[in-house]
Design a protein that fits this description.
- Chain B: InterPro entries: QcrA_N (IPR045603), Rieske_2Fe-2S (IPR017941), Rieske_2Fe-2S_sf (IPR036922), Rieske_Fe-S_prot (IPR014349).
- The complex is a heterodimer of chains A (554) and B (356).
- Chain A has 554 residues and is mainly α.
- Chain A folds into 3 domains: 35 residues, no CATH class; 251 residues, Cytochrome Bc1 Complex, Chain C (Up-down Bundle), CATH 1.20.810; 140 residues, no CATH class.
- Chain A has a two-stranded antiparallel ribbon. Chain A has a two-stranded antiparallel ribbon with strand order 2-3. In chain A, strands 5-6 form a two-stranded antiparallel sheet.
- In chain A, strand 7 and strand 8 form a beta hairpin.
- Among the domains of chain B are: 76 residues, no CATH class; 172 residues, Rieske Iron-sulfur Protein.
- The radius of gyration of chain B is 38 Å and the shape is extended.
- At the A-B interface, helix 6, helix 8, helix 9, strand 4 and helix 11 of A face helix 3, strand 1, helix 7 and helix 8 of B.
- Strand 4 of chain A pairs antiparallel with strand 1 of chain B.
Chain lengths: 554, 356
């Protein structure tokens, strides 16, 4: 059709590669795709790499994980180990554990693949977390990207699920105790907890079903969901085009950066190999999860200093922080003849619930407070949104307190302090830490804004000290060039938005609450310097320098 | 410097305000002028960068060779040791790292030093145009109209009902994932079998423990007699039945009414499964008579019948009633008088069941 309608002489490829490309192109329309994407512009900044790290870690996880499935046997049948790791020779264990040992000791490169897989998993969740922090602190979640932020949150949860299901597979002592903790948490769920536990484990803990079930979740369901979410995520990135940092020449109507081909593609593609190389280096040099040291799962022994993988730590820490008995009040009590175990239920569900609820709803909360319905493609520098930045740091601090609590015993033994004291301090920080973090962060952000303002008004310090005739010493400031100056003054500083009446002329109670939050959000603000102010400030300097000139000419 | 603070504090002393009406704003000066790199101006520098990229790709080739060498040259035969595996792992990893980092840094260096580094600006377009929206609305209206779903509520409502019910079998079909819990969690292997009391035996070898072997201050990890001989569900039973056995000075034990004959001569036995979330309470502090759970640091005081004195557990460890049989071996006189391990919704029900 195209040949007859567009040109009288149909295109004929001359080289072999050309003919092949043309064959494909005529059938899939690759030219159009290339025309659209070949030179698509991507902004460049080091902080945009965290998402890439996550993506590449996931690719590495798929590759190393596929290798591992060829040798792993997720059976909980009993066997006697006969591999080459002599300390465990003839020890009774599950087939799953035995095959994990075989991967480590009898498959060439198996240990390396296991370590690559585990390190990549840790890096995957970590880079997702840091990427989300970047998106939060720069305000990249604002319209039109709210839904993509939610997809990112779902990815974080899926990544944790993938990590946890995978962590339990080798059926070693450490992961078995982890499963036992999960079982205890599930049993604390009112009404249906016991049933869920029996259905998950196929009967009583530990049973003989759980490893096989986790295996299917780990290698099929969870990765498929992650892949689906990544596709949606990247599709939306293409639709929205990437955000960019503020600066001269950048605004909400354009996107400034490098074209996809060749520079951006080369950098991003090369970066995949760098991520792979770094993970390989870690797998080569640093042991991770030496399951052979732990032994097979047995409900009786446990090693001191047990730790979950880092991303589950905050839930484990919350479990540790919760007191079971305060004075004589027991957090477990009997209600209508049934047992309610709040000392497990509350810490397991509430902090994680709050964190993820706030995370998922935050774009809409801020949108409601600011009544800002514009599209934002230029990022905020964190200092220019002091309240948001303070909220983020407060939440992060809260998370970190719980995370630290997961290592309370190690903190106590490493620093030779009492374990009980560590717990008491962390309990206090659980409540006070986020508040302190909020206040300090907000002050720091405002101080940085004022520093920016000062530099915009009076120029940068030159380090040149001049003595004035009357004996005063001053430091000479040099004015900034237009581009640097614009970076410091080209931002919005919204003022609190007072309550507004609705169409009936009534100021609703909800609107009043919004106005109060808006005041809380924007009350403390540093406005960007205006041209008039800079003019005035320069006049001030000129005067000084003028008098200096004069005094010298005397 | 200090005299440069501008604006007057309005609310909390931190506000510096510009002209509130903000009529004036800085004009965007546009993209800064492009600055040439050394490699753009000096052919020697460009040649040098080219050589560096080639060397990095060469490093990658060497890395791949290291990997292949380590894979085929190091034999994991029967006589290999942990050291062999460790060396092979190191070489395989270093080989991969060189291979990957060589390619990665080479390409990035190539892009940064030799490819054009002009930043370009591209217009953004609206994500949705009003024209598209109207067209879409028309299409949806047409589709809805053609199905006639608005005019035929009977069809709509029966379809809704059918679709709402259809997933139920998909939920029901998971009913065989596990058995009903019933009262399985309420019982352990310690219950006397055919009138014969179970002996306390050592974990893991299963040899019985004589009361005279238990000296003051000692502690034993205990499993019930016959556990090791189980063919099925051994770990399930062990997960409920493991016990810690300790002997204290009888005077230091506070014994509550009804438990007078649960211990023997200062020897007491408690469930090893933490009442918090079920970790083994494996650490016994001999001096303080405290039991500590290494998972979440719940601490139980042995002298006060394992009352919780610190940490997230809320309930004391269940005590196993013990006595001595005719041959001097320790036996359990009955099962635990309450369910062991982490609490669950039906726990109190089960406790009443056991004691009725």
């Amino acid at each position: 059709m195209s040949a007859s309608s567009t040109a009288d002489v149909p295109f004929e490829a001359k080289t072999k590669v050309g003919r092949f490309t043309d064959f494909v192109d005529e059938r899939v329309g690759g030219s159009g795709i290339l025309r659209e994407f070949g030179r698509k512009v991507f902004p460049d900044h080091w902080s945009f790499m965290f998402g890439e790290v996550a993506l590449y870690s996931f690719v590495i996880l798929l590759m190393s994980g596929t290798f591992l499935t060829f040798f792993f046997d997720p059976s909980m049948a009993e066997t006697h180990y006969d591999g080459s790791y002599t300390p465990l020779y003839n020890v009774e264990m599950s087939v799953a554990y035995s095959s994990s040992l075989n991967i480590s000791f009898d498959v060439r490169g198996g240990l390396f693949m296991r370590q690559v897989h585990h390190w990549a998993a840790l890096l995957f969740v970590a880079s997702l977390g840091v990427h989300m922090l970047r998106v939060f602190f720069t305000g990249a979640f604002r319209k039109p990207r709210e839904m993509n932020w939610v997809v990112g949150g779902v990815l974080l949860i899926l990544a944790m699920a993938a990590g946890f299901t995978g962590y339990s597979l080798p059926d070693d002592l450490l992961s078995g105790n982890g499963l036992r903790i999960i079982d205890g948490v599930i049993k604390s769920i009112p009404v249906i907890g016991t049933y869920i536990s029996f259905f998950l484990f196929g009967g009583e803990f530990p049973g003989t079903a759980i490893i096989g079930r986790l295996y299917v979740l780990h290698i099929l369901l969870v990765p498929a969901l992650i892949l689906l979410m990544i596709v949606i995520h990247l599709f939306m990135v293409v639709v929205h085009k990437h955000t960019q940092y503020p600066g001269p020449g950048r605004n909400d109507g354009n996107v400034v950066g490098y074209p996809l081909g060749p520079v951006y593609a080369a950098k991003a593609g090369g970066f995949f190999f760098i991520v792979f190389g770094v993970i390989a280096l870690m797998a080569a040099a640093f042991t991770i999860n030496p399951i052979w040291n732990y032994g097979p799962y047995d409900p009786s022994p446990v090693s001191a200093g047990t730790q979950p993988d880092w991303y589950i730590g905050f839930v484990d820490g919350a479990l540790r922080l919760m007191p079971g008995v305060v004075n004589d009040f027991h957090f477990e009590y009997v209600i209508f003849g049934q047992t309610l175990t709040l000392n497990v239920l509350l810490p397991a569900l509430v902090p994680a619930g709050i964190i993820f609820t706030v995370l998922f709803t935050y774009p809409w909360i801020e949108r409601w407070i600011t009544k800002d319905n514009r599209e934002h493609h230029v990022l905020d520098r964190p200092r220019n949104a002091p309240t948001r930045t303070a909220i983020g740091v407060a939440g992060f601090t809260w998370y970190c307190v719980m995370w630290a609590a997961a290592g309370s015993d190690l903190i106590a033994t490493h620093f030779h302090v009492s374990l009980n004291d560590v717990t008491y301090w962390l309990r206090a920080l659980f409540f006070v830490g986020p508040i302190i973090a909020f206040i300090v962060t907000k002050r720091v952000a405002l101080a940085l804004q004022r520093k920016d303002r000062e530099i915009a008004l009076h120029g940068r310090e030159t380090g040149r000290i001049v003595r004035l005739p009357h004996g005063e010493f001053i430091e000479v400031h040099a004015p900034l060039d237009d581009y640097k100056q614009y970076k410091l003054v080209g931002f919005e500083s919204p003022a609190p938005l007072p309550a507004q009446p609705n169409e009936h002329g009534v100021v609703t109670r909800k609107e009043k609450r919004r106005a109060a939050l808006s005041k809380w959000f924007f009350e403390d603000r540093v406005a960007p310097a205006t041209p008039a102010e800079v003019e005035a400030a320069h006049g001030h300097h000129e005067a000084i320098e003028g008098s200096e000139q004069k005094s010298l000419s005397h | 410097m200090g005299n440069h603070s501008d604006g007057s504090p309005k609310h909390s002393g931190t506000v510096a305000t510009a002209g509130q009406n903000e009529v004036e704003k800085f004009q965007d000066p546009g993209l800064p002028p492009h600055r040439l790199r050394l490699a753009d101006t000096d052919p020697k520098a460009a040649k040098r960068a080219e050589r560096q990229v080639a060397i990095l790709f060469g490093v990658s080739i060497v890395g791949t060779l290291i990997f292949l060498g380590a894979y085929f040259a190091i034999d994991l035969g029967d006589d290999s040791t942990i050291a062999t595996i460790r060396n092979q792992n190191l070489l395989l990893g270093l080989g991969t790292a060189f291979a990957m980092l060589g390619i990665g840094t080479g390409i990035v260096h190539w892009a940064k030093a030799l490819m054009p580094d002009h930043e370009v600006s591209e217009e953004r377009h609206g994500i949705r145009t009003e024209e598209d929206r109207q067209a879409a609305v028309r299409i949806v209206d047409d589709i809805v109209e053609e199905t006639g779903i608005k005019r035929r509520p009977l069809i709509r409502n029966t379809l809704l009902g059918a679709v709402a019910l259809a997933p139920l079998p998909a939920i029901a079909v998971f009913g065989d994932l596990g058995p009903r819990p019933d009262d399985k969690l309420a019982h352990t292997m310690w219950a006397p079998q055919d009138g014969k009391l179970k002996r306390l035996t050592r974990d893991p070898d299963g040899t019985p423990i004589k009361a005279s072997d238990v000296t003051i201050g000692s502690a034993f990890h205990v499993i019930p007699e016959g556990l090791n001989e189980l063919h099925e569900g051994k770990l399930n039973e062990k997960a409920k039945a493991v016990v810690l056995l300790m002997r204290l000075n009888p005077d230091s034990l506070k014994i509550s009414p009804g438990r007078e004959d649960w211990s023997y001569n200062g020897i007491v036995a408690y469930s090893k499964i933490c009442t918090h979330v079920g970790c083994p309470v494996a650490l016994y502090e001999q001096q303080t008579h405290h039991l500590l759970c290494p998972c979440h640091q719940s601490t139980f005081d042995l002298t006060q019948e394992c009352k919780v004195i610190f940490g997230p557990a809320s309930r004391p460890l269940p005590q196993l009633p013990i006595a001595v049989d005719a041959e001097g071996y320790l036996v359990a006189t009955s099962d635990f008088k309450e369910p062991v391990g982490p609490s669950y919704w039906e726990r109190d029900e089960h406790e009443r069941l056991i004691n009725s």
